[in-house]
Automatic annotation (TrEMBL):
Residues 5-104 form the DRTGG domain. InterPro entries: DRTGG, Ser_kin/Pase_Hpr-like_N_sf. This is Drtgg. It comes from Lucifera butyrica.
């Protein structure tokens, strides 16, 4: 899914990175624990989070994330925005809570990072 579609499905504002909206996202992850992001994301992941501290950008850089969506209308400070611009990481803000934002992306075809084989009891 292109980042421009992520923006559309989440009615998101672009904080920075308009020039990168044609990048493809392979999957999405909703998390506020950056240790979970480091452990469970894949390349080209879009992160949905409520955290607005500088560690989010550091984690995105290490994890090769393709973009960050701040949920619940949270807006990061200028230092975080400047670092994201320097690192080439697009930032978005959506008013949706994390659960609904993740659901909207999943419903429109963007898979999660973790694929599990479901075993049904008979």
């Amino acid at each position: 899914m292109k980042l421009s579609e992520v923006k559309r499905f989440l009615s998101a504002d672009v904080i920075c990175g308009d020039e990168w909206l044609e990048q493809e996202a392979a999957c999405a992850c909703g998390a506020d624990l950056m240790s979970d992001v480091l452990a469970f994301t894949k390349e080209r992941t879009v992160l949905l989070t409520g955290l607005t501290n500088i560690q989010v950008i550091r984690t995105a850089e290490v994890s090769d994330l393709v973009g960050i969506v701040f949920v619940r209308g949270k807006r990061p400070g200028q230092e975080l925005i400047q670092l994201a611009q320097t690192k080439g990481i697009p930032l978005f803000v959506t008013e949706y809570p994390m659960y609904e934002a993740c659901g909207r992306l999943y419903k429109n075809g963007l898979q999660g990072c973790f694929q599990r084989v479901m075993v049904h009891a008979t």
